Amino acid sequence: MTTTLALPLRPSAEMARLARFHRDVDWTGTIQAGTTGPDSPAMTAIGQARYHIIQDGLWIVGDHDQDLYLTDGTFVRHSQLHWVAGWDPEAREYRASSADSDGHFNFLSGTIGGRLLTFETVGRPRVRTRLFWHVADAESMTWRNEVSVDGGPFHLVERYACTSHT
Fold first, then answer.
1. Are 100 and 23 in contact (CB under 8 A)?
2. Which of 34, 35, 71, 138 is the most exposed, having the fewest neighbouring CB atoms within 10 Å of its CB?
3. pTM to 2 decimal places
4. Which conformational region is residue 36 in: left (phi greater than 0), alpha (psi within -120 to 50 degrees), or beta?
5. Which DSSP symbol is given to 56?
6. What is the top-level taxon of the source organism (predicted)?
């Protein structure tokens, strides 16, 4: 099946729905023990995400920064993630890419169901990732990350309570 797209593309209703989940936020949260390595401890995190629109509204770009701490408050490290998301009219789905300061790069496909946005890695990587954004209201949402290794079940890695940045 061939899809013909009218050019130039214009921002779609799908982008308006996607933007609801991509707002400037600050967060606090937890990282489960054993998820960043076999003997990794549980940690807490404090972070932020800042987004902007590019290419006349076709893509949303975000930069995420967070500091990780042991549960006793000892600083562990700073991490970063760069995110690009949008609606792919040819594939008829949300698409995203992420690149982080741990050397990971992913392509993801996503869906929106009510107040929940879900993205999952595409292809067959050894480590599969699922990301969930749940909008509670105009000021707050939760975000969580789950992984599956070698086709096993998904397990919670981290969960954050996000507050819109004012």
1. no
2. 138
3. 0.89
4. alpha
5. G
6. Bacteria
